Amino acid sequence: MNRLPIAFRILLPAALVLLGGMAGCGTVVTVDALAKPGASSVSYKLHNANPELEENSLRYREGANYIRTALSGRGLFEAPPGVTPDVIVSVEFDVSPPKTHREPVLEPITKVVPGPRHSTSVPTGTDTNGNPTYEVVTWQESDKEVITGYREGFITTTVYEKHLQLVARESSSVAHGRAPAEIWMVDVTSEGKSHDLRKQLPLLVAATIDFIGEDSKGQKKIRLNDTDADVLFVKKGMPPTAALSN
Questions:
Q1: pTM value?
Q2: Same domain (yes/no): 148, 47
Q3: Which residues pair with 105 in a beta bridge?
Q4: 217: phi > 0 → left, psi -120 to 50 → alpha, else beta; which?
């Protein structure tokens, strides 16, 4: 029995997934959101929940500006100094250590086939009787590499997970000495070969806009491009006075 159809049946589904991922454009992100039924909020204050990231660092300030922009897209505004906000929005974004994946592929089996030989008669002149004379010239075409079959193989790739989490909690609970109640939460992840969190962060933040204060009812996968309206909106950012008022 020819092993080629068997190999295709085993590995074709995985190959199609890989090809589909390469053929598509943009970045795939996974969004998971929860929200307390009936809860609503208008004003907020941001809180840096990542102890390894300084609040006055350029990375946090840039990310916080993106997040303020996304929150403004849902009608929320940052409470001015001295005003108690409806919610405290905890912010955490980071990139994971590298992870190694082994993925199945079909590796072609090849062999070199000698090129065909050709010959022809080329006139060289005439003999003493005036008759034309000929010389047989022979040449060979270049060798060719042809695929004779396929074998099962694996490729190893290194990927990084970029992660963003926003958690909104009631600020009034803290004022009354109670544990802060969680109002809504949005968790966004994206996995890829790049470890450049700064480049991916606008896409992660843009992915939160439709889910802030909403229940996604499980994980949702969405695809975003750098030119999408929500991504451009986030990249535009808040005016400097609004972004740095906190």
A1: 0.69
A2: no
A3: 153
A4: left
In angstroms, the CA 207 to CA 214 distance is: 13
Q: Which amino acid belongs to residue 59? A: R
Query: For the domain that residue 97 is a member of, what is the CATH number?
Result: 3.30.160
Q: How far is CA 192 from CA 142, 152, 161, 162, 178, in A?
A: 41, 24, 7, 8, 41
Output the tens digit of pLDDT for each of the chain's 246 residues.
444 444 444 444 444 444 444 445 789 999 999 999 877 789 999 999 999 899 899 999 999 999 999 999 999 999 998 899 999 999 999 999 999 988 888 999 999 999 888 899 888 888 888 898 989 889 888 999 999 999 998 889 999 999 999 999 998 755 556 678 899 999 999 999 989 999 999 999 999 999 999 999 999 999 999 999 999 999 998 776 444 444
The answer on 144 and 91 residing in a single domain is no
Contacts of 95 (CB under 8 A, 6+ apart): 160, 161, 162, 163, 195, 197
Handedness of CA 191, 211, 35, 244 (dihedral sign): positive
Q: Of 152, 183, 218, which one is at a domain's C-terminal end?
A: 152
CA distance linking residue 142 with residue 189, whole number of Å: 51
Is 86 in the same domain as 164? yes
Question: Three-class SS string for 122-174?
Answer: EEEEECCCCCEEEEEEEEECCCEEEEEEEEEEEEEEEEEEEEEEEEEEEHHHH
Asked whether residue 202 is assigned to any structural domain, the reply reads yes
Note whether 167 and 220 are same-domain residues: yes
